[in-house]
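User:
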Amino acid sequence: MIHAPAGYFCTQCPTVIIDQDMLRESVAEKFEFRGTIGINNAGKGFDTFDTWNGEKAVYLLDENQGILGLSTTAAISSAETLAKKQTSAALLSRKHQHKKNKMARQSRKKNRSSKRKQALAILSCDANTTYSIQHAEHATPNFITTNVDAETMTSKITDIPIYEHRDSEIAAEHFNTVHIALKRINQLIRFELPELRTLDLILDAEEWIVVDHSLNDIPVVAWTDFQTQSRTNLHEPIKCSLNLYHIHADIILDKVIIAMDLILGKMLSDQFLEEHNIIHFRPAKKD
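Assistant: Predicted structure:
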């Protein structure tokens, strides 16, 4: 608390004009000026204010009845009104967000239910392009084909910073399926991943790469450096490197492997049916 001759008193009424700039300049640098609380009464304590700027004065006290500051009824009323408006707006915003979240959950549930009823995929193959896959509700195919450059993809996963590197391994059944598909179908295969929005999986003998085709094929996950040189059996897992390029990339790892097995299995099955004629025998007639 400081005292300064910063008051200009009226001789006709109990009014004083206080020069708060003078008080503020009198405060030492390590302290902060928070306002005026009263007038010194010749060493007998201080007189409090009945009004401040024409409004009824209200003193703010701490838990020990010490004075924290000075306000007015009008300022407090205005602050309470503003707080009520902000609280009301926050409640409305939460209700609106809750409604939006509920609608989004219902929409996702409906989409998942619809996708289960769809055919798994419609496949297309061209001698000069890689395989691609597209979901469809009807039997009429709307094919999409995608040219993939293995050197370009290798360059991308080496140029983009890795968020996290892990020493990993791939189960033999998954690796064997990819190995067979690359030998029988194409040396480079690419398809969309069901229920993973804009993500595609690109497979070749050296790398398996999940990319986001909406972001110019930026990598999300990559399995590389498959340790197959000393492989002597077909049932033990294959050690490899796992590179994550996104903070949440590990969430989709299991989904990618499951989708890859299903899609490659269908591709291999369809190819087998195209390359082999199946003879259907009529049941023998009973005498």
